[in-house]
From TrEMBL:
It comes from Rhodoferax ferrireducens. It holds the Pfam family AlkZ-like. The lineage of its organism: Bacteria, Pseudomonadati, Pseudomonadota, Betaproteobacteria, Burkholderiales. It comes from the Bacteria. This is Uncharacterized protein YcaQ.
Amino acid sequence: MNLPSEDTPANAPLTLAQARLLQLAAQGLLTTPRRAATPLALRDCIARMQLLQIDTISVVARSPYLVLFSRLGAYPQAWLDTALADGHLFETWAHEACFAPTDDVLLHRSYNQHARRHWSLLNGQAVQASQRAHLDSLLAHIGSKGPVKSSEFARQDGKTGNGWWDRKDEKRWLEALFASGELMVKRRDSFQRVYDLAHRVHPRLADAVLPEAAAVHRHFTEKAILALGITQARWVHDYFRQKPRLKDADLDVLVEQGVVQRVQVQGWTLPGYVHQQHAELLQTAQAGKLRATHTALLSPFDPLVWDRERASAMWGFDYRIECYTPEDKRTYGYFVLPILHKGALVGRLDAKAHRAQGAFEVKALFLEDGVKLSDAAVQAVAEAITRCADWHGTPEVLLGRTEPQAMGERLRSAGL
């Protein structure tokens, strides 16, 4: 990284473009990886983000694998599964269902037991209250027989099941015990959770003292600011889904203690916040010496864009995850990937990997309003799509409609 200019004032306001580059650097999306990915780099990537959201949709690679690919480049997806099975990561309810570094297991356990009001945890509490005998029987079974998957239990009601609202009893009981912390996910087999007793997954939990609520709240606040690189106070709470939404006054103590720095960003009516660990990065951004080189397709659940309000204010990118929207109300498509190009979100595409046919279908590709790409930028986008398709094992790219229409021909001319 270039060193900051010595004559740049420490309190110089950032331009919005500089703030964006700072956030990309913190998130690991500023520059194209120079080295091949390694298992350690994968774990470091998750530690940098603090959380890696889990989603089961598989029209392309499932979200956690795609988030890592956007930052690391090509890597074997089994590395993530191995990191979980080897105990470097654990699963928890946080932003939503997430992988998190095992060093943070006590923080998450404390928050989930004492403060979080997620629907899955509340549903688990209801099951625990009404069906405790069944839960205890299942715990005894796991204690004597070992880890289990829900698929090992046959349905007794003749139904086939259709989503979380129609789960078989054992799946609901397993999830209730996961919500209470009595079970943890030991590993995943073909993305299915394999549950085991919590103290066998992480022995330190057997006699651990959980941190107090105030300490947990402060840690998550700091970690969110660190992961985001730069943020307004009102965006901090969403990262770990804390309550309540923060105001500037809520961060006064951290500012006074020098843990975070309050900065001005041109065009913002509210201040931004940068963690002290990014002090040098902030100075480099203020000096105008951060350079974005990376072009990538992002997951809909990438932390860069998972907060719609933040994505709009930071990136001018109004992004709704439309896979949960009825088909007739979708604007762009079912599983739409934002296109990042050298410090800007320039477009989005609706994709599907046809693995049996070896084809990566781009159903539709849209440039953002007002975006005009140079030939070099079109080439970079075409190469990003090709890299993503190759990593999926679907090297044939099928390009559908584009807006503007001429973008399709330009991409084909660029080798897509």
